[in-house]
Design a protein that fits this description.
Order of helices and strands of chain B: HHHHHHHHHHHHH
CATH architecture of chain A: Orthogonal Bundle
Oligomer: heterodimer
Shape of chain B: globular
Structural class of chain A: mainly alpha
CATH architecture of chain B: Orthogonal Bundle
Radius of gyration of chain A: 23 Å
Distance between the termini of chain A: 30 Å
Number of strands of chain B: 0
CATH superfamily of chain A: MetI-like
Largest sheet of chain B: none
Mean pLDDT of chain B: 85
Helix content of chain B: over 70%
Order of helices and strands of chain A: HHHHHHHHHHHH
Structural class of chain B: mainly alpha
Helix content of chain A: over 70%
Largest interface: A-B, 81 and 90 residues
CATH class of chain A: Mainly Alpha
Strand content of chain B: under 5%
Shape of chain A: globular
Number of domains of chain A: 1
């Protein structure tokens, strides 16, 4: 579309502002994490590593970080297995039941967080799952499942089923076909599902806030209670660490996806 | 029968393998029923049965002006957030379609980076930015202005939520806009339409499906927001989610909290049902293209 020069300049400026609005808030934790004072007021005073030190040495922080890692790892494995199986099932069903079941399995994405949280909390109180590893894993797995399903389904859609028929026609059994033909071809989808599942669990806050107790706290819960309690710059240090870690994780995922796309071309 | 004869999928089906796909989805469905279905059912039942059977909790919710005010505020905050998102996302998504691949990559990254960062940390950033001793206020003061109150106000909540939800608006808009045939705009121009007229009569209507899709997603997600209003808002910007939490955790009123939750849930699904035809027709169009 052609535009007058003035319109073009305004468009560029507006988009620049939107881009800054999108990115800048994410980065503001970085300078705050080196604050010399125990305060979140801007601008930070002085320079120190003490908040990073506090993150490592203070058991409140390090335990919750380890808890999150533990929960997210189990969730990633469980959600990937369940989600991949389900994606295969849906792929091989008739269209109508498949679309119905798919919609059902995507509901965790649209149910408002708090409604789900009080429901799960109610059930967990009866089942004595509040503050347990199993409780966290079950709740996070169901929240991560849709992401695995979407990632693997997208991969299965472009997967050429004639390859399986070809493998079968040269005498390969169902398991051999799956292991040597199907699995390697849809592996990128499974791996990106795994990453998404891990990130979903590692990040989950609303349900976690309800089902947590002093014995089992995940990192987002610890961050939330620290923000509401006092102005401890340790949260900024954690935020910075998470920012770096997620960037590395997602960067890896994007590389995988990019390689897959190149492979397809 | 020779051993060389291939087993085709049809042959498998004849042999009674048709149930197998359902068996594969079974584990996920069982977990879904246990961790989503059963809890939601529990909430619906509690909203109708505590303290005794009946609709007293719903009568209480719709009878108290305080609750209706919160309900109305939840809708108005969500509407504001949606509006801000549409206004900001439209030019941004358009620019994404108009620039070269390298600039586009930068623009896409700017949209995705906020997605990567933990939701709680993102809200923390907004606390740092908006608080009275925050970035925005200290910039204002150093420029000679008096500070303004942003945190614990509705404006602050809208700013924070809109930033979190903006990607959900930009991405569907972009996917629709990149499919628009720009020769149609050229045709309008060659018939003598001014650029603004060509935009409003040709380009804008073609991009509306993307606006609808994005707006519905943003509005629905905004209705259920909990963390951002809890940290950025004050008592005068309470949203429905916070009220649900207070009823259940602080007051132990499961019936009342449940009723509110059901109202929120039903509203969400009604909006989704309303949106489904729009989304589906968009899908079909995309398929035809």
């Amino acid at each position: 579309m052609e535009m007058k020069p003035l319109t073009r300049v305004i468009l560029g400026l507006v988009c620049l502002l939107v881009a800054i609005w999108l990115v800048a808030p994410t980065l503001v934790v970085v300078p705050m994490s080196f604050n010399g004072n125990k305060s979140l007021a801007f601008p930070p005073q002085g320079f120190s590593w003490q908040w990073y030190q506090n993150f490592v040495t203070n058991p409140e922080w390090s335990t919750s970080f380890l808890n999150s890692l533990k929960v997210a790892s189990i969730v990633a494995l469980l959600a990937t297995v369940l989600g991949t199986l389900a994606a295969f099932g849906l792929d091989r069903m008739k269209a109508r039941p498949a679309s119905l079941l798919r919609m059902l399995m995507l509901t965790p994405m649209v149910v408002p967080g708090v409604v789900l949280a009080i429901g799960i909390y109610a059930v967990y109180l009866d089942a004595q799952l509040v503050g347990t590893l199993a409780g966290f894993v079950l709740a996070h797995t169901i929240l991560a499942l849709p992401f695995v399903l979407i990632a693997v389904s997208a991969n299965l859609e472009v997967f050429d089923k004639r390859l399986e028929t070809a493998a079968a026609s040269v005498g390969a059994g169902a398991l051999t076909t799956f292991r040597t033909v199907t699995l390697p071809l849809i592996l990128p989808g499974i791996l990106s599902g795994l990453l998404f599942a891990f990130a979903t669990s590692f990040d989950e806050i609303i349900v976690s806030l309800f089902i947590t107790n002093p014995y089992l706290r995940t990192l987002p819960v610890q961050i939330f209670s620290s923000i509401t309690r006092d102005a401890d710059p340790t949260v900024a240090a954690v935020g910075t660490i998470l920012l770096c870690a997620t960037t590395i994780l997602i960067g890896g995922g994007m590389l995988l996806l990019g390689r897959e796309r190149k492979g397809r071309l | 029968m020779s051993a060389l004869e291939p087993t085709t999928p049809a042959a498998e089906k004849r042999a009674g393998w048709a149930w197998r796909p359902y068996a594969l989805t079974l584990p996920a469905l069982v977990l879904l029923a246990a961790v989503i279905g059963y809890p939601l059912l529990t909430i619906v039942l509690r909203s109708l049965s505590e303290p005794q059977w009946g609709v007293q909790n719903y009568a209480w919710f719709f009878g108290a002006p305080v609750n209706l005010a919160v309900l109305q505020r939840t809708f108005s905050i969500s509407a504001w957030v949606t509006l801000v998102c549409v206004v900001c996302a439209y030019p941004y998504a358009y620019l994404m379609t108009a620039v070269g691949p390298r600039v586009r990559l930068v623009l896409v990254l700017c949209v995705l980076i906020p997605f990567w960062v933990s939701g709680v940390v993102r809200t923390l950033s907004w606390v740092i930015l908006l608080q009275d001793s925050g970035v925005i206020n200290s910039l204002l003061r150093s420029a000679g202005f008096t500070g303004i109150r942003l945190i614990r106000t509705q404006t602050g909540v809208v700013i924070g939520m809109a930033q979190v939800l903006l990607p959900f608006m930009i991405l569907p808009l972009y996917s629709v806009m990149k499919g628009i045939d720009l020769r149609l705009v050229q045709a309008a121009r060659s018939l003598g339409a001014r650029p603004s007229r060509a935009f409003f009569t040709v380009y804008l209507p073609l991009s509306l499906p993307g606006v609808y899709a994005g707006a519905i997603i943003v509005f629905i997600l905004a209705l259920g927001f909990y963390i951002t209003p809890a940290l950025l808002g004050g008592p005068r910007s309470t949203m429905l989610s916070t009220l649900v939490q207070t009823q259940v955790l602080s007051l132990l009123q499961w019936g009342r909290g449940g009723a509110m939750g059901v109202v929120l849930l039903v509203t969400t699904f009604l909006l989704l049902a309303l949106a489904a035809p729009v989304m589906r027709s968009r899908h079909r169009e995309a398929g035809r293209r």
